[in-house]
What we know:
heterodimer, A: 88 residues, B: 174 residues
Amino acid sequence: MPSVSQNFRVKVLFFGRLKEILGRGEDSMEIADGTSIENLFAQYVTRIPELARYRASLVASRNQEFASWSTALRGGDEIAFLPPVSGG
Amino acid sequence: MTPPEPLERSGPAMNGSSSGLDDDIFQLVSSPIDPSAYISKIRGAQDGAIVTFDGFVRNESHGRRTLYLDYEAYEPMALAKIREIGAHIRSNFPIHCVAIVHRLGRLQIGETSVFIAVSAPHRSAAFDACRFAIDTLKRTVPIWKKEYFEDGAIWAEGELPPMPAATPQAKPAS
């Protein structure tokens, strides 16, 4: 049988100006097996090109821990794209 | 000692977001912060000092008159990062208790946005721990503020949290 690549869903969160650009803070995305956080962000850039200019100033988190852009995602993961933080 | 009761003036923490490591206090709140309430909670008979940091809303930013600020957070992660700061302080400084509370939502000029208090037998540890806490919070806790002016609003210039190095151990989903 030919191998079929598995798709799964992840929860994606946006904060600060990203949330304003998207018009929402939370999304659910179906992605292919092996998708990295970088790939996931690129899918949003395809939909909303304006996001591209923020890529260099973002960090990402996976399940509420900072994560590198090369991190491979799993079904059910919660990914967030975080602009520079300005609490305090 | 009993765990801290929720502080009356803090209102219900958003998200029930209060937890104690010993008697430490870590909270995200939506209503005004009363520093004195936290100070009395962490003050023990064995202490000789409490150092506090009271961060509040300034009336200007880069020369523009500020009207008010809106704070938002990735709440569960922000609270987890605040707890990590508390745990780090506890294992690196000889202190008694630490309280770290951050307010979210709309804040007017002069209102406290972040309050940190550290009690310790001796002042040096309390100063060092308090300084570490606010500096680390500003770099690593996912909270954002939007500044409103008479002629517009901007997201404050922030700091980029340190990113983990690329993770060679990242396993493909199986």
